[in-house]
Design goal:
Blueprint: E1 7-15, E2 22-30, E3 33-40, E4 44-51, H1 54-60, E5 97-101, H2 135-149, E6 154-158, H3 168-176, E7 182-187, H4 190-194, H5 196-203, E8 209-214, H6 220-227, H7 232-245, E9 249-255, H8 264-272, E10 277-284
Parallel strand pairs: 5-6, 6-7, 7-8, 8-9, 9-10
Antiparallel strand pairs: 1-2, 2-3, 3-4
Helix pairs in contact: 2-3
The structure holds iron/sulfur cluster and zinc ion (ZN).
Length: 304
């Protein structure tokens, strides 16, 4: 009797990456890797690499702790996860890190942007005009986070590119008036590099803020593929300004398998020598939005 060429491990839920319908998924072990195999009635089978070390994967499942609950739930349980998201009372965790998107606009148009932001006035995907949120909307968003969390641990002002919002410093003033433990600003660094008076004003908020600075590579070829522009000069100038004003910074590296994973060591070595840098975050690329030609069965850079 023939046997299957994989080991079935568990059954779970997932969503179809095309239509976002909730689907059943098998977790299987095959060729020393862990895969999620899902089946959408409309889009067929999809196989996604989730780990390339089976023992590590199994070990990671042994760490279990009770989930922290938010102070408030905002939506009723009606259709099940993920359709009730808001958060609903069935959600197993609080929001340990909240992103508040203050604008859809950006001064870059990265080919990999999953927020569908960009420098063009109108989105090429949704065909909706891009806009800045008003101060009233932003305050309402931040108040919702505070009502849910009490004292939110980390709030990141994000976008789009938050530093191009015309009322950027008013937004920081609003955020600073709320009981947020750690306030961060996600930025591509373009304004930091080009506008020294902006850095000067930003430094006056130290030590109460931290920058989360996009920093993917030292190589033009990599930057072109991820960001659509040669940002080497921008990065250098931004880091020089942040060092000069000693603005606390975390570097954020988007990693794409086979493209810039060879630079991890160099980036850490570089970061260790910069006065302003307090940490480096490596995030495997999110295969969504404008990113094309990505095979989730082999191109995913997993945590293992
Ligand atoms: S800098 Fe960020 S928000 Fe702007 S286009 Fe690139 S990924 Fe999107
Ligand atoms: Zn589907």
């Amino acid at each position: 009797m023939p046997t299957r060429n994989y080991l079935f491990y568990a059954l779970t839920n997932s969503i179809c990456s095309k239509c976002l319908v909730k689907v059943e998924a098998k977790i299987i072990f095959q060729d020393d890797c862990v895969y999620l195999v899902k089946h959408c009635p409309t889009h067929g089978q999809e196989k996604v690499l989730i780990a390339d070390d089976i023992e590590y994967y199994k070990k990671s499942l042994e760490f279990i702790k009770p989930g922290d609950m938010p102070l408030r739930f905002n939506t009723p349980i009606k259709y099940g996860c993920p359709y009730d998201c808001g958060l609903c009372a069935d959600h197993e965790q609080h929001s340990c890190l909240t992103l508040v998107e203050v604008t859809d606009k950006c001064n870059l148009s990265c080919p990999i942007c999953y927020a569908d932001s960009g420098a063009e006035e109108v989105s090429t995907i949704s065909h909706q005009p891009r806009s800045h949120r008003s101060l009233a909307q932003i305050e309402k968003m931040i108040d919702a986070v505070v009502a849910n969390e009490g004292e939110p641990q980390i709030v990141q002002l994000s976008g789009g590119e938050p530093t191009i919002h015309p009322e950027f410093f008013e937004i920081i003033d609003i955020a600073k008036s709320k009981p947020i433990k750690h306030l961060m600003i996600n930025t591509n660094g373009v304004r930091i590099a080009k506008d020294k008076s902006f850095c000067d004003r930003l430094s006056q908020y130290m030590p109460g803020i931290e920058l989360y600075l996009q920093f993917d590579s030292f190589e033009n070829e990599v930057l072109q593929e991820l960001r659509g522009a040669d940002l080497r000069d921008i990065r250098e100038k931004a880091i020089n300004h942040l060092n000069e004003y000693n603005i606390s910074t975390t570097l954020v590296v988007t990693l794409k398998k086979g493209l810039n994973d060879h630079e991890i060591g160099n980036i850490i070595e570089f970061a260790l020598q910069q006065k302003c840098i307090r940490g480096v975050t490596f995030q495997p690329i999110q295969a969504a939005g404008r990113l094309e030609g990505f095979d989730p069965q082999k191109d995913r850079y997993t945590l293992t």
